[in-house]
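Pasting as-is:
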Amino acid sequence: MTSKLSGHTILIVDNDATRRSLLKSSLQKDAFSTYSFVEKNTGSAATEFLQTVAVHAIFLAEQLPDIHTYSWLESIRAISNCQNLPILILVETENLSTVGPLLQAGASFCFSIAQISPLLLQQILLTTLTAKDSRQGLEIKKGGTPSIKLEERLRLAFEAAKMGYWEWDIQADRVRWRYQAEEIFGLQNEQFDGTMNGVLALIHPADRQSVERVLRSSIATGEDYKFEFRVSAESPEVRWLTGNGRTFFDENGSPTLMIGVLRDVTERVVAGLNLSASQQLNQAILDSLPEHIAVLDKAGIIVAINKAWKDFALHNGTGSDELQGTLGTNYLDVCEGATGDCSEEAAVVCNGIKSVLSGVVDHFRLEYPCHSPFEERWFLLQVTPLIRAGGGVVVSHLNITERRKIEARMGALLTEAQQAKESAENANRAKDEFIAQITHDLRSPLSAVLGWAKVLKNKKSNEQIREEAIQTIIESAEKQKNLIEDLLDISRTGMGKLRLDVVPVSLSAVIRSAMDVMQPACDAKEINSSTELATDADAVTGDPARLEQVIWNLVSNAVKFTPSNGQIKVRLERADPYVRITVSDTGCGIRPEHLPFIFERYWQPASSGGKRKGGLGLGLSLVKYIVELHGGTVLVESEGEGKGATFIINLPYRAVRLHHKEEIGAIVADDDWAEDTAPDLFLDSVMSSSALAGLVIVVVDDEPSARELVAEILRQHGATVKKADSAAAAFDLITSAEQVPDLLISDISMPDEDGYMLIRKIRNLPRHQGGAIPAVALTAFGRMEDRVHALSAGFQMHLPKPVEPAELALVAANLTNREITTFVQSR
């Protein structure tokens, strides 16, 4: 025999077939009830079904793929035959943050199927259905007595669910407790007077007004009521209850009866409060960490972020409103939608998170660069699963930029140390090879000297043999002498003691002299040698012997590496702001990897057969050192093996053109050079030695010999000269002087600040500080556009180097308003 509750239709809405089967089997164990089940795996299918078919209760999964639970509850309540329908929600975990909003949205009960026994589930469904039938007035009879069987089942159900039942006769103001309602309140009958005021008195004062307001609203509107409150503060323990029910009216619309169900939810509320406190603690811990942290649920939706994440987002251009929308955003969608430079890293991150969420891997880690408009940064991404919290992951980004910088610096230092080690090893190896080579090169002529000396000692030698022996001894001694001179030069360069005898030099004469020395060697190998010497590029200041040594070394090197019938060409030309010497050959060429080492001491490339060409590997290092002593530069170019080589020397112009009589005097860059010991450089001048007397002239040039030569010309015409080796020093001389100098003569091509920058700074000064000082640009830049540039910048005159001494003196006199005609000498 079945009970009156048999034959109820239950709708189960869940896309998890295993969970639906477990739910049905639990309910079918109730021997007193027979249920029929309808199963739907989507919310939309359930909605369509409910439009035409009435059911007695619904079991709904919290998460379905096609609906939002809250909005679905509202839409179902809008269906006429579903307004009072019990809806029981299957949740993953019973916590306040999940259950509370669902109950407010219209759920009748929330439970986790994994945390509830079949018996309790049966009693909950029975109680829910009974309450529904009671609200519909199926068996409500005041003072009536339900069947014993049903009464017993209701008692068991209320006890199992920890629930109590109460009724309020509104007209008589009498409240009746049933099914352990007193125990839920924690009171005995004698403590209760049976009125509604007595009920309200049992409620905690802080919650009393809100409960009364809900009850009055139900009486006024007829809507079901639901509230949560604490029992009286006099109770030794804080306990929380929930109440929900309905008000019934007579034919005239007057309220007659209110029924309700009470449930002790202390454990859940306390757990929720503890959870809230725990969440606050967890959030505080997250906020204290330097990593940018986001917590994702099992679908990849961001459910929490920490302060570091927010600060980073705000710092990098995310607006406050946009940041507010971060929670609830699907992080995987953001990664998959990334474009531009970061799309590749975003795809790797997305796949890594998916792998952890699906359990394929238990951890994911990635170091990646951050494409920021402010600075280059690096981050360490780590993804850790949340196994005990219903799924999901923790994604953290740690800024490791400083670590990467340190690693880069350490890597650079390690590379530098390795290079230094290799360089030292190469240097030691080169020195060993050098010692072996110099031993060979010194022994060879020495052996010839000793051998031929012994021949001469033999008196039987004829005159021809004696002549040959003497010639060989002389040549061998010369070779040893040259080797020793090279060694001494290298020693002097290492100690900085290689001195130059600086005089005005004709490079054409130097080149011709060096080529005359090397011509026999060229003829011996049938090498065609030629020169191309420009007449307007002949004036430099330097040591003629050392410059000839430079040309001789380069031509000798070309002869050594050029095969028979090859060509060697030496060219002298003007290449503003330099005089350029080019020595090119059609020899064996230089490998690209050897070019950086050509000018190093003791270094020589091996030939194709693995043998060295001879020599000590000192000549080119001496070339570089001597050229740099003259203020010039030297470099080498080659397209590779078999394609020859070209050595290019750039030397600074001599500032002043000197005539033959003057070129015998040495030009020494010495600030203490006394006038009575200086040579007379200006025999051809048309101005007297006092033409510039009384004038204070500032001369600025970074080349010492050029600076001193111009200063001496001006001094020999009576001027007081202040010298500066840079634009900054010249500016200080002009602005710090008690009286503004009368004239500025400035070079253009100088390091740091050039002459154009200097004159612009001066022209921005007030007149009394030197802003209107006459100025001459004395420069090796001699093109028309260079002249226009100089005059536009603020110079009054542009003189190309080398300048005639008389022209320089005349320009100085003209710009300072001297009467030139009064100083002209008779000739």
